[in-house]
Specification:
Helix 1 packs antiparallel against helix 2. The protein has an eight-stranded mixed beta sheet, sandwiched between helices. Strands 6-7 form a two-stranded antiparallel sheet. It has one domain. Helices cover 36% and strands 19% of the residues. A hairpin with a 2-residue loop joins strand 3 and strand 4. It is of the alpha/beta class.
Length: 299
């Protein structure tokens, strides 16, 4: 039985909740004001500053097991290379960088948990479509060899059955007036900053609810861990039913007036999905060795 809070404990709880929510609202306003100030003062030269502002938001939220890298190219063991990604969230605990020297980084898809595109100027639908396509085409490999506590896992269809082929979450960070529905459909989340005359500074956050994901945790689990792969038929029972009954909408946090505290809501939604991916995928060292073997010329 849960012990009821004493009057002193209840007061401390309410104070804590008030302070945390107030700080999230303040952070939201600060981010929006910075984005619009940079945009107004610098115009088309805002690129790197814009990325820093958005990356600081994600640094507030992600667990320490993840790192944020800017200006990366993502590759797979087949040899596909993505368009440049403004910044990526990855788990570098077990997965090696394929190449890292200064600002040039080639990172395997198996390590990537999320990719973020940051825009403050007009968004070109054709560019965004091609950018998203270059991410979607990347395939994780199951040709891994790793020791588990009770066994040695040899991949190639015999690995971890709950994670056959992962894909990163695709996130867009932009100004609201520069984004439309044709742009949004290429992303899992859109974070759109807005600041109009007489309007409160806010970041509008939306997630996809289409054929790929209707918003339940089961839809997200299937989409993120079985990308272009068949899901095992023996996934059933109470756990799956619980996932099907749980939606991202249930993670919404509102204040005492019923208004969505958007960044706190996104914090819980985003981190819940990161736990469903639980990167990194077992890394297929042999597949990448074969990709590079015999290909490069000597000086």
């Amino acid at each position: 039985m849960t012990k009821e809070l004493s009057p002193e404990e209840l007061d401390r709880k309410n104070t804590m909740i008030t302070n945390v929510t107030a700080n999230y609202k303040q952070v939201e306003k600060s981010i929006v004001n910075q984005l619009y100030m940079k945009h107004d003062l610098h115009g088309t030269t805002v690129g790197s500053e814009r990325e820093v502002i958005w990356s600081q938001l994600f640094e507030m939220m992600i667990p320490k097991k993840f790192v944020i890298e800017s200006s990366v190219f993502i590759i797979d063991s087949i040899g596909r290379v993505s368009k440049e990604v403004d910044f990526a969230i990855l788990d570098e605990t077990y997965t090696p960088y394929i190449f890292r020297y200064g600002r040039i980084k080639f990172i395997p898809i198996e390590a990537i948990a999320a990719v973020i595109e940051c825009k403050s100027q007009s968004l070109k639908p054709k560019y965004i479509k091609n950018w998203a396509k270059s991410i979607k085409l990347l395939k994780t490999s199951d040709r891994s060899i790793a020791r588990f506590a009770t066994d040695i896992i040899l991949g190639e269809g015999k690995g971890v059955k709950s994670q056959k082929s992962t894909r990163p979450l695709r996130i867009l960070c932009a100004l609201r007036e520069n984004c439309n529905e044709d742009i949004k459909k290429h992303f899992d989340f859109t974070l759109l900053a807005s600041k109009g005359a007489g309007q409160e500074e806010q970041i509008e956050i939306a997630y996809r609810t289409d054929d790929e994901s209707e918003g339940t945790l089961f839809d997200w689990f299937k989409s993120l861990n079985f990308h272009d792969a068949e899901m095992d038929s023996d996934f059933s029972g109470k756990t799956i039913e619980k996932l099907k009954d749980t939606s991202l909408a249930q993670y919404e946090v509102v204040d005492n007036k019923g208004k969505n505290i958007s960044l706190l809501t996104f914090n819980f939604q985003f981190n819940q999905l990161l736990m469903l991916i639980n990167n990194p995928l077992l890394f297929p060292h042999r597949a990448y060795a074969e990709l590079f073997s015999g290909k490069g010329g000597s000086e």
